[in-house]
Amino acid sequence: MSGTHAGNPIAARVRRLEERLVAGGLVTDGELDAVLASVLRGATPLNGARIAARAWSDEGFRERLLADAGAALPEVGLSMAGGLQEQRLKVVANTPETHNVLVCTLCSCYPVALLGPSPSWYKSEAYRSRVVREPRSVLTEFGFELPETTAVTVWDSSAESRYMVLPRRPDGTEGLSEDELAGLVTREGLIGTAAV
Amino acid sequence: MAEREALPAQFAPGDQVRAVAVDPDWHTRLPTYARGRIGRVVSVTGSWPLADDVARRREEPRVEPVYTVAFAARDLWGEGGHEVTLDLWQSYLEPYAPNEEA
């Protein structure tokens, strides 16, 4: 969570709502904390990094992952069942021809139960309104220059599916182990605002 | 909440569709920027209760196929070379045949 979270008006409103629910005897603070803890247990971008590293190392896994991510995740000890309800995950692979970038223009949908909370900029109005309209400019502001010859697809998570980008395996990494490969992957790479 | 049987899929990958040009006063997951725009069905992702019905606390929300639909930036914004894909419930879409345009 960012340091400014407590000053956020929505956070204050949520806290007031929590207080009313607790005061009304509908729920306790402990129960609310337990729900959050159970949803976020094990949720981290490291899961996405492990998935990417396996996909780079095992072509069969890559194919199964892109065809049906939910069915392939158990192969790396993960699943989409960790949240309040199981969600469909779609993994989209970057290629030399096409780069993928994720957004939720309506709110801030993100595979939270798998990858943990999204970055604060992902929820900002600026990112959400601009990346669907001028993705190349937005990527440039992230310090990521995409070749003109690479097409861009922006995935707006408008329904019940959640998305993850499979970055391209960096050049010169042929000798690396799966763990070493996972260490190269960033949360931005899994959203598509960085190359890896 | 009772769950209805899913409606059969009306569209297939490759079909051209138009997002309906509506402006409901309830919660919907059809973003304003896509309303009335023409796209191409990329895939059928499964069937889910219609978000509009769920948000309105309908007893039996309609369960509809949800499609990933790709729109060309040029058709959405009048410029840009990229594509934007959206996941849209079936009732957000209508068939589009270019030769029907007068």
UniProtKB/TrEMBL annotation, chain A:
UniProtKB keywords: Metal-binding
Question: What is the species listed in this Swiss-Prot or TrEMBL entry?
Answer: Streptomyces daqingensis
Keyword flag Metal-binding: yes
Every Nitrile hydratase alpha/Thiocyanate hydrolase gamma domain range: 10-194
**What protein name is recorded for this chain?**
Nitrile hydratase subunit alpha
Question: Membrane-spanning regions, if any?
Answer: none
UniProtKB/TrEMBL annotation, chain B:
Q: Name one Pfam family in it.
A: NHase_beta_C
Q: Which residues form the Nitrile hydratase beta subunit domain?
A: 7-95
UniProt-listed InterPro entries: CN_hydtase_beta_dom_C, Elect_transpt_acc-like_dom_sf
Q: Which domain of life is it from?
A: Bacteria
Q: What is this protein called?
A: Nitrile hydratase beta subunit domain-containing protein
Its source organism is Streptomyces daqingensis
